[in-house]
Amino acid sequence: MGTLFMTRRAFAKASAVTIAAAGVAGIGGQALAEQEGASSTGSGEVKHIRSCCRGCGKMECGVWITVKDGRVIKSEGDESAFQSAGNHCAKGQASLQAAYHPDRLMYPLKRTTPKGQAPEWQRISWDEAYKTTVDAIHELQKKYGNETCIFMGGTSRIWAMGPYGALKQCFGSPNGIQANEICKGPRFYATKLNDSNAYSWMEVVGHPRVFVQWGGASELSNYDDSCRTTVDVATRADCHILVDPRQTNLGKEADIWVNLRPGTDGAVANCWANIIIENDLYDDLYVRKWMNAPMLVVEEDSFSPTPSSSSAQSKSINTRLLKESDLKEDGSDTRFMVLNELTGELSWYDAGGDNPGWEGEDWAPATAGKEAHQFGLDMTGQAQGFVLDYTPFPDGLYPALATEAGGREVELKDGTTVHVRTVWERYREFLQDYTPEIVEEVSGVSADTLRKAAITYATRVDPSTGYGNGGIQYMLAGEHACNATQNNRACDLLAGITGNMDVPGGMRGSTPGWPVYDLAMCVPDSGKTTAYTLDKILGKERFPMIGSDCNPSWADATSVYDAIESGEPYNVTCGIGQTGDFMNQSNSLFASEQLCKLEFWCSIDLWHTPCVDMVADIVMPAAHWMELDCIRKSQGSSGAFGATVKAVDPPGEAKNDLEIIVGLFQAAGVPYFDEAVHGAAWLEGDEAVRACNNIALKGFRITEWEEYKKEFQEKGWFDSKKEKPEAWGTYRRYQLGNGAINGDFPPTPNPHQGWNTTTHKQEIWSTVLESWLPGQGEEFPKFVEAPHGPVADPGLFEDDNSFLMTTGRRQGTYFHSEHRQLPWCRELWPVPRLEMNPVDAERLGLEQGDWVWIETDQHKIREVVDLYYGIAPGVVNAEHQWWYPELDQPDHGFKLSGVNCLIDRHAQDRIIGSSNLRAYGVKVYKATPENSPFGNPVPCGDDGTPIIHTCDDERLKSWMPLYEGRE
């Protein structure tokens, strides 16, 4: 280990030596695309290609793809991939069946029958597909305006993110229906408000000493981190805390289970904060210096503050936080006032000027610190990283967290006297509504369990490290119960007050990408794209933050569907979908009905999905991950980056999504590439893909895709800690400058210390929400009950068969709507399951395997009862996004079991519009021949054909891989 104390510069040099040694030693395992002749049978060529799986979620696992005679025959884990520890799950291995599936889309298609009828398709050329799409959209835009066009994007196949940016730039419309409105986006946005975008990611690979698993099960689906990594971390942690209404697979091993009522996450998070503060377990120096806790809030309602020009988040900041400009005529509106505990006088933090800082401070980036000492990192070859020591306040300054009783009196510049108290005092007062006893009544979790969990999380296992036990892996559940923004703000503040922001095992943000962020390969660099603004973005009328200059980046999905129906505020008539579907948010029935009214729709996909067969006029076939090249980086905090590497050619005329988007730009006459850099405004085939990847490599030490891919093949996954030891390999980067907070890829000037907020501090009191939602009391992360839960809508829970339903759990064979047509997956899990406590099942006369109806005032669906003691009586857990590819009808039976057909589409997060997908009342009763269509409790298609519901259904054989006829 050497000395525990060194400068950041010395640590960087040591890390460089480590990289050089690793380069000499090489990575275990033999690569590579060049390896030949390893065939065990026959004389065909065998290649082993290092790549990146995309069989499921947001953590990209490293894999080896074995290709024999041009055919993929196996995929397995890559031992160089420290972020996934050589793991390769069932969904990933089933990718082989997806790549060679006989139902893949292989050619561009044009619909020849009216929508609403069984679709018939005519094969067309790519040129016709591009031209038809662009001409149709342009014609409608001339009639209705650019914003008449919408774009739909699904889960982040990182090469297929056109709806999130590039398509808006091609057609000049801001309207994207994006899956991140209900998946990751609310978390990212909550931390964008509090500190910095996407700091909801936790460095699980850093082995937190206390592992808090909140509302998710990444042990089953690589959502936030690899399955294997999650299991290793949880089982080796000093304590594992599960916060979930359902005992997850890994949760059965948890030391503490906070079994909360669905939809009460925000109340529990605020309760933890109350307990931590009352027990003096908060990180005092971080709270005083790096949160806006000591800043002073004016109490009087009559106070009219001067606007602030501190514009790190928004140019429209009007905050009750006291500023020097409120006190004197020539005062600065970026100097936020505090009370100096040492002198009893007012002092300030200045968020403006050439070198923002505290009064009396000449700020410079921190340098002193020591190497981290997290156990288990050596097993996967990770670097430890360098933890900066906290820097002290300037001499003579120590901001107070409390004022005298009743608040400090100050005189404003107009001569009036007001009272001020610190944000911290106001926060503690706010938290009095979230005591353990109060939250026990709200959440159903005992006060003792709440105390035990919070104290365990906040009490440092090893105080000698100087940092906390780790962050909180808060996942999807908090985003889905109409309090999404504030639920996630509350969890973020828990990590802040305990000193777990940007520390080993803590909240670190997304792994840095180039040149700006991880989607750069999906963004044109011509500088000549079609401009658009947020002035007409759909959703801003109901949700002002969507149209603000501190926005979450999406149009509200429900507002888009409402606009199609009503024509207000304008006509929505056409669009393009890329990997997206209408089943993931809002009400699926209403959404599908509205999309079918569009005058034109183009789908870019791999399959005949409900969206393709119900809505599309033009279909463009996309390549599978085994068939394409693209830079890949972990979306989370692992620091891993590598590549998806083309192993085989796609079937027929299917193309890499990157190339498809460039083709649409060319047809639209909008330059995609910078001609001075790439030699042309548009490119085709491998050249287009290479150029897209080169855009993303700008700023990295390897700027050419082929060279990058070669090094990846030879040496394995890149570790950001080693590549950028100062910007990613360093912890507490808010002490280096706000550019470093997001990894400094590429190196950028650091204009100020601290976080990317109005006050440069992690904001307990949100100046953005205060300014944009005045008078609504959103400054602190308040908890509001789900609109159709037992408190807000008790009438839904009066019958014996009334239940509170949660949905969206992870499981081992599917990822959201994916893989229902893969034989390996479907035979293991043929039908959707409704988990129910056996006590409830016995009361209702239900048995394991019974089909039941699940009903709301919107619709009713069927799933199969799965008896499970790991869910509380009165609560049921349904599976989400089921559809049945085997049903030969346009909607493929999504209405039969699609859980989002049940929801109230206007039950939404009050700040950003995210749908209420969990924590609502349903009726559950047995499906019988008498109450089921066709006299069959098993769901059937329109013609009476039952779905596949057993593992021995002969129809599974028709989905076996097709190896011939793919040319």
From TrEMBL:
User: Which Gene3D superfamilies does its entry note?
Assistant: 2.40.40.20, 3.40.50.740, ADC-like domains, Dimethylsulfoxide Reductase, domain 2
Q: Which SMART domains match?
A: Molybdop_Fe4S4 (SM00926)
Q: Which Pfam families match?
A: Molybdop_Fe4S4, Molybdopterin, Molydop_binding
Q: Which domain of life is it from?
A: Bacteria
Alphabetic keyword roster: Iron, Iron-sulfur, Metal-binding, Oxidoreductase, Signal
Give an example GO molecular function.
iron-sulfur cluster binding
Task: Please indicate if the UniProt record lists Cell inner membrane as a keyword.
Answer: no
What are the 4Fe-4S Mo/W bis-MGD-type domain coordinates in residue numbering? 46-103
Cited InterPro entries: Asp_de-COase-like_dom_sf, MopB_CT_Acetylene-hydratase, MoPterin_dinucl-bd_dom, Mopterin_OxRdtase, Mopterin_OxRdtase_4Fe-4S_dom, Prok_Mopterin_Oxidored, TAT_signal
Signal peptide coordinates? 1-33
Recorded family membership = Belongs to the prokaryotic molybdopterin-containing oxidoreductase family.
What is the name attached to this protein's record?
Answer: Molybdopterin dinucleotide-binding protein
The top of its lineage is: Bacteria, Bacillati, Actinomycetota, Coriobacteriia, Eggerthellales
